[in-house]
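Shipment paperwork, digital attachment
Item: protein structure file
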Amino acid sequence: MSDDTEALRRALVAYAEWETLIGGDGWPAVDPASRTLRSAARLGAPDAEVPADRRKTLLALAEQAASCTRCALHAGRGSSVFARGDEGARVVFVGPAPGRAEEASGAPIAGEAGALLDRMITAMGLTPESVYICSVVKCALPDPHALVAEAREACAPFLAAQLEAVGPEVIVALGEDAAQALGDASAGPGAWRGAWTEWRGIPVMATHAPSEVIETPALRRPVWDDLQAVMAHLGLRR
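Attachment content:
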């Protein structure tokens, strides 16, 4: 078998597994915990020791976000939505602004979108506990599809401080709002995803948010292409 044929075979197998994990058309959704996935390099385990100063910084930021009054969203805030996952992760996923489902759970990207994100992460050969997930803003929007510029600007220092504290090797921006918040505001329509950019020297890959994949299943393939680029950058192999 030629190298090109073997590479194609691996790509097709990986895509079939990806469709199975995220419950694609014609494929049964399965419990990610029942899958055995391989990776060439193990990402930080969720129980890995995190430096005390990093944990203290992130805790202080979460407390500040919970009492923030920098924009009008605080008036209707039930609770802030700060982060979930491993504070020492090599990969950070930055999601869109939270909605009421996220506010109720206290975690970014919750509900059906959160379940899909967890399956996407599992399809990469990782676990949701081994990555760090946060949002562009920290208070729920009345309409999660309409990010208020004032809110994004008000929360920019929180997001920047989070990313600086975690210090990941790669950032995955989920959705155009996250891509713009991380500096990719000049790209034309549709040109914001699938290309590497940088945030303060950290590589950023922007792709569609899980909620967009749910609304438009045809986005599954480009999202998988983007996540494979992240896997290759980290030395992960399926």
